[in-house]
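Before the break, one more example. Copy the sequence into your notebook; we will annotate it together after we see the structure.
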Amino acid sequence: MVYIETKSTGNWLPIFWISTGCVITTLVFLLSLTRRYMHFKPFGSPISRIVQVIVASLRNRLLPVWLCTIWSSVVFMQIPSLFTEQGAAMDRTILHFPIPPAGMIAFDIISTSTLIVFYDKLIVPLHIKLMKTQSKTLVELQRIGTGFAVVVVTMLSAGLVEQRRLKFSDGSSTKEMSSLHILWQIPQYILMGASKAMVCVAEKEFFAT
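Here is what the structure looks like once it is written out:
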């Protein structure tokens, strides 16, 4: 879809049809499984339940953790904005094939999925070996903190790439097009995916328990 959008020069009709088809397919799949869902009859007042959740979060000091995770979400939003703009001003050709800047997010998705799937087999044994502890896994707050540290490294990596991109800039246009190849962005996308896997999953587990 990103490639079609890049090459269509304003004709986005195929993109809309593909997106519509994906939504319809997802809706049909969702409705086809409604008989397998567990249904519970609602009881009590919805407002009182919301108040109970707020009081419980204040009592258990969950609000500061939630506020901290908001800042990481701000960084995660840099992928579709800052990183894409950065990639658009770099050399995007491989064997005369143009790489859409937004398509680089595939490395973020692959990194996130890989870390989630192999977390127990890779991260946990490494943690036990390095820390010399008998703990089977990192607790949720430790995983969130590790994700924040990876976010810092991610932005440092993006800053170094930007510094190098400007070094190879031709300076002949307002966009400061550079001869630095877009594949230099791969590390920052991989790191961003790893941080999202640590923070987002641990955040959901923390508030669920």
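The mean pLDDT is 80. DSSP finds nine helices and two strands in the chain. Try to locate both features in your own notes.
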